[in-house]
Structures are given as structure tokens and as C-alpha cells.
Write a structure and sequence with these properties.
It is built from eleven helices and eight strands. By secondary structure, the protein is of the alpha/beta class.
Amino acid sequence: MQKRKTVLDIQRMKAEGEKIAMLTAYDYPFARLMDLEGVDMVLVGDSVGVAVAGYEHTLPVTMEEMIYHCRAVARGLGQGFLVADMPFLSYQVDLREARLNAGRLIKEGGAQAVKIEGGEHVADIVRAIVNMDIPVVGHIGLTPQSIHRMGGYRVQGKQDQQARQLLNDARAVQQAGAFAVVLEGIPAALAAQITATLDIPTIGIGAGAACDGQVLVIHDILGLCEKYSPRFVKRYADAATLIRQGVRSYIDEVKQGVFPGPEHSFS
């Protein structure tokens, strides 16, 4: 059995030029299956609100929901490095609350690191949590918790001023102590520039191939989320069709009296 990956393993992968494969997971079965296939990092994202709970966006997700899903995923992992999102309002109010909630995701949820959205304006929060010996992953560019300010899910960094700010944001979270940073929804050339500038790994989602790694939502790559289909998502399997076929066969057999058969009954 492989040992659990650590922060040092993730940083070594960048140094050695090995790409980092990261996926979201929200429960034990998915975590176990992706861990068996050797995923490097697993993110319990607040995207659970959209992919699993059916919310319109990530903002309603609570700390209690994040801890519940994180705990379930942790049970399914043997070697994947586990990161938990800090949901909206869990770190923006004050440093004390941010530190407490980060600690809960580690202590109660079983995470090895937390992820925080934002750049320069959250650098003090990143630093405070890192000073508790809790590893932090930054997240800049298209930050879903900021959809109301951004006017929706829009690519960030197209204008020169925006691009300069994202470079400053990337440097700020690195200087604050983050050991990696997610780059979401930014032009590929800008992501390549940030990746070359930083010493810490970059994990891209809709940010081109030059990032040190990639992350996608598991429900998106399996065709299980029909609410939206971002351009940056590649569908690797059509699990929705397979599930519907199984459900339809079950319904048909129940209606016809075929199931349960003698082999599924007790004498």
C-alpha cells in the first residue's frame, strides 16, 4: 500500500516536472475509486453545492456540509493528498474565525490542507492559517465565491490591468506561505507566465496546459452534471447514460414481477 502523499511530494513534482493530477470528490465511493487509480490530489470542493446538493452556485455551502463530505472522502483515500475548500463566510469575517474553521477542516474533516479563494486581499488570512502549521492552497482568477462581483463565471485576466493584478495575486499568496495555487478561468499565456514566475505548483482549471497540474470536477468528467458544461471540461465517460440504463432495467423488472427472483429471496 502506498503511503499518503504530502506537501513535500506535491512540491517535488513541480521541481521534477511531473504533472499533478487532481480531481474533486465528495463521498467515500468516488474517493476510493479515484485513489485506486493513483490520483495525486483530491479536492473536497464547495462545488459540492452545485454538483451534489443542486444549488445554483457555491455560496450556500456551509462549514458543516464541508466537514461532513470531507470526512467521508478521507475514509476513502489511501495515498491521495486531501484538500478541503473553505466555504463562503468561513474565512472572510476575521482572522480568528478563519483560523478556527481551517482547524476544523483538518481536525474534524481529516483534510491535509485547505483552499482559500482570493489574492492580495486574503494574503493575511493565508499567512495566519499557515502560521498554525496548516498547509494552504491559494485560488486566483475566476473565483466562484465572487460571482456576484464578477457578474457571473467570466474569464479573468484578459485586460492588461487584470493580468498584472493576477500576477500580483499569485506572488502574494506564495509570499504568504501557500504551497500551491489554483489558477481558474484565465488565458493560457497568462497562466504559463504565472507558472514560470512562481516557485510553488500551479493547478489549472480552464487555464491551459502550461500549469504544473490540472483539476476538474469528477461529476463533469463523468457526464453527471447537466446544469452546465464549461468549455474547459473534457468528458471522459458517459456515466449518466449507464446509470439511467441500470435504473430503467430495475424499474422494468419490478413492474413485470421479474425482480426479485428466487436467487434474491430467502427460503
